[in-house]
Design brief:
By secondary structure, the protein is an all-alpha fold. The protein contains eight helices and no strands. The N and C termini lie far apart (about 75 Å).
Length: about 180
Amino acid sequence: MTDFDQIFQSYYHSLFLYGKKFINNENDVYDILQEIFMVVWENKKYKLEDAHLKSYLFNSVRNSCLNYHRHRAVVNKHKGYEVFKELNFYKSGEKSLIEKEDLNNIYEAISLLKEDYKEVIELSRFEGLKNKEIAEKLNIPLRTVETRLFRALSALKKMLTQRQIFILVNMIFESD
């Protein structure tokens, strides 16, 4: 058994569990560990003293996991930007079949809400009224409007995709 094999067998499981503390997806942790052991192999890090090697491995896992989260944040930010671009495209009047399906799903989900929640969502998203204006129009306290909006959006999050929620949250229809 080579030094590398011994190191792999000694640390792999511990490093995997350590990586799982940072990342829930096991496959992503496996990928990170594979990259780290590739570096150990290529740069002959397995020749380091045990204490230095152990420190190197655990620091590498931690740093790789943090880099993973930074990368995910950028990817998610980019996805939000893509949906925003699509939303702007949608507003330009060039509606695609997919976008119509998104809207149909949003309308369908709203129709399934309790009447109080549906009314507040429609006033907020379709008529573009602010919470205070909704409270005045319905003659209810502002806090009640905020609560109904929160509960309506929470219910809609369970029924719609993340993209559809993004569209709904950013939706304020202009009159046709």
